[in-house]
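Hi C.,

You asked whether I'd gotten around to modeling the 208-residue construct. I have! Everything is below, sequence then structure, no commentary in between.
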Amino acid sequence: MAYKLVHYINQFFAGIGGEDKADVSPEVRDGIVGPGMAFKAAFNGEAEIVATFICGDNYCANHLDDVAAHMVETVKAYGADGLIAGPAFNAGRYGTACGAVCAAVAKELQLPVVSGMYRESPGVDLYRKEVTIVETADSARGMGKAVPAMAAVMLKLLKGEEIADPEAAGVFPKGIRKNMFYEQPGAERAVQMLIKKLSGEAFRTEYP
């Protein structure tokens, strides 16, 4: 059986309008709206969007707590297994809204949540520690890459798999550090990194 998801989008991606419609209040529609079709293809039958939560950017910015609480109730009402929000790209209010609703669902329901944002979006700094955020391009031109990446990360979380390497998954690190065990002593690994650095070769620190 496919996992059930709620999808959050703003008034623009819902086809309601642009800034002139940014004050529209929350609306929940059964099934897929807008970019949800791309997610349907990316999930390949393993997950389905059972409802789409739509809210204007201005309305959400001015009623953030209320919208987040409404989202929690919506996810519960549909018996969803998780929430996917956006992608918001570099839209500041949209990214903040995606982060807020995802953080609320993660905290209140302990369910997987995934969003997608450009690295300079304020939503990244505000919510990266609480929400799994996939790095995207700065505009909707990057939709073709953002959706499959977000879908892949969501499926891993739904299956209880850990995002062991956030960088490889294209996810912003949450700042969680874990002890790791290696066959080589730390001194040897450090010298190898130093040699690569001196030689101009690519290397990756173990403690970013």
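If it helps when you're writing up: The first strand starts at residue 3 and ends at 10.

Thanks,
B.
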